[in-house]
Amino acid sequence: MSDPLTIGVDDGYFTQEFKELRLKTLLVGVLCLGKKPESIRITTVVVDGSDGTSRTLEIINDLRRGSAADIRAVFLDGVTVAGFNFVDPEEINVRTGIPVVVLFKTKLKLDRVRAALIKHFTDWRERYDVIERNYRRVQEVVTRKKNLRVSLYGLGLSEASKLMSSLQHVSTIPEPLRLADLIASGLTRNTCLLNILRSD
């Protein structure tokens, strides 16, 4: 069986000032063949904005354009990026036809999330709907390293288990997502780059 093509998408670092001023951080997509990176796409996303889904779609479509084979899955780290910006995995699945795996590394306290959204956003219902809808459908998937909490779109639990296990390398996190996080976080920890994003 040939190595699967998969994509991981994750966001970068930002300071509190970026939240207050609605500045931008990076959103990085990594296309992997098996555990090996094949291609990278980088764009920006507004901190606490509402362009997370559209920016993620741009990255996915750009990465798949240069690929001859079908993408087996897209991996996301939760459904929030850049603070309380959000990515709707159901919309990603419907619009691309690619299965989506959302990893939830920590347990959410939905009442606290809801209270924070009400306090800071007039469109809190839309944001909370995406977060709650996805968190309510979390399942535990068995992998060769440890059990992980995921919500799945277009992919069964057994298939997700096999796929994720095959993509684990130095971490429990599938390699495409681990690399996306590594690149996005590494680049935005650089003060010089954050200043460039500030003036963008």
Concise summary:
Helices cover 43% and strands 26% of the residues.
Features:
about 200 residues; alpha+beta; archaeoglobus fulgidus dsm 4304 fold; 7-stranded mixed β-sheet; two-stranded antiparallel ribbon; 8 helices
Question: In words, what does this structure look like?
Answer:
With 200 residues, the chain is an alpha+beta fold. The protein has a single domain, classed as archaeoglobus fulgidus dsm 4304 fold (2-Layer Sandwich), CATH 3.30.2170.10. Helices cover 43% and strands 26% of the residues. It has 8 helices and 9 strands. The strands form 2 sheets. Strands 3-2-1-4-7-9-8 form a 7-stranded mixed sheet, with helices on both faces. It has a two-stranded antiparallel ribbon with strand order 5-6. Strand 5 and strand 6 form a beta hairpin. It starts with a strand and ends with a helix. The model has no long low-confidence stretch (mean pLDDT 92).
Overall mean pLDDT stands at: 92
- The radius of gyration over CA amounts to 16 Å
Text of the CATH class: Alpha Beta
Structural class: alpha+beta
**CATH homologous group name:** archaeoglobus fulgidus dsm 4304 superfamily
How large is the count of helical segments? 8
Most strands sheet:
7 strands, mixed
The poorly predicted ranges are: none
Q: Name the strands of the widest sheet in spatial order.
A: 3-2-1-4-7-9-8
N-to-C SSE series? Answer: EHEEHEEEHEHHEEHHH
Which fold does the CATH topology refer to? archaeoglobus fulgidus dsm 4304 fold
